[in-house]
Fold this sequence. Notes:
This protein is mainly α. Helix content is 44%, strand content 6%. Helix 3 (31-37) packs across helix 4, helix 4 packs parallel to helix 7 and helix 6 (91-101) packs across helix 7. The model has no long low-confidence stretch (mean pLDDT 82). A two-stranded parallel ribbon has the order 1-2. It is built from 7 helices and 2 strands; from the N terminus they run H-H-H-H-H-H-E-H-E. The chain has 2 domains: 1-51; 53-137, no CATH class.
Amino acid sequence: MVGLSRNRISEIVGNTIFGNIDTLLSQGRDMGYIADHYNMDLALAWALRLEGKADQEKFKELAWGLRTWDLWNFNKGDVLFGDDWPGKIPAQLVAHTLFYFTKPGDLVFDPMAGGGVVSDVCLVFERRCQSFESGHK
């Protein structure tokens, strides 16, 4: 999902004191620093930070806005989610689509996972995700 095994995620979650995330943020640290500090993927750090918040709050925290009029007009994709990949789609587009067409806990299927943008956004927005990349020959 985020390039880590379940065991590694369990280890990170078990060793992370989540109150410290808020403390680090109040000290002026950013989410990139926090992810590095806890040796975790940035999408996982955001998912932990935003866990339990409503989708609208997540859009606000990510500074994406929630605008119906520009759903398909993103000038720049957020580099925080997914790996660099040819044809990478903007995380904001995935998040808007999830917001309007799914609810937390729903299962999302991504048959062309590529760099993992959909699975990263599903993690943050609390959707389950099944994805695979068939590769090219």
